[in-house]
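Section 5.1 Outputs to date
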Amino acid sequence: GYLYVSLGDGGSGGDPDGNGQNLATLLGSILRLDVNVADGYAIPADNPFVDREGAHPEIWAWGLRNVWRFSFDRATGDLYLADVGQDQWEEINFQPVSSAGGENYGWNAFEGTHVYSGQPAASDVVAPVLEYAHSYGRCSVTGGYVYRGAEFPQWRGIYFYGDYCSGRFWALAPNGSGDWRNAEILDADFVLSSFGEDEAGEVDACILVDRCIQGRAGIAIHVLGIPVNVHRHARSGSERPCRGPHLDLCAPMAAGTAVCRRRQCDRQIDGIRKTGCDGLDRLELPLPGSVHVH
């Protein structure tokens, strides 16, 4: 197989150098490399820009700002790319396994589906399959995986992702008619850093927590069938009291519905104040199968 590498646009805010729309730089792109060689890497002969003058032949896809986790569906080979936006929009991009590569996902001509720089894109743009705005405390997408495990068969084929700041989790899946279904499955007091997938296809979520979580080095939580591994994360500053844990897990209801009680404590996470509350959140999940919660 080949090695795929994600590179951001180089920073400075807004991509002032236009790297995302420039094939003459490796920045703002996904690279595809053949590392099955004795030294360094080789360029796959079927990479999309091998024969284009002035373009880096390593590039597989471009027009990306800062992909924060991309993953392949282990069953189909489809590629999912969660691209962090600049000021207003987060997005999920999709590349089917049948693709020959070369997709331009639009940055910085576009942020999501919205005009950003005012300059035309360098080629036709492939729009994201999903975008969401910076509202309700949301700020930065964290890409995940398509679930292909055995423990929760009702979730197979569903892509899980979330938001770093708000702790919200979503489930995304094609609807079979060329469109996509998306459902929020959890609104929690988590800082969602990343996801992981084990050899069996089970999906983990990696959560950053304050040191106030009762001094424990790690906590395992299952949220709607997603094992959430909460790891102690050393942050600068003084210890703060915390009324943890912050989540009373959901009780399973009828298929497609769960009721969750969410409890938060007053604390600071990356400068964002999380205020206390107790309440019931009803999560409507327009997804196949029943909801299992551990």
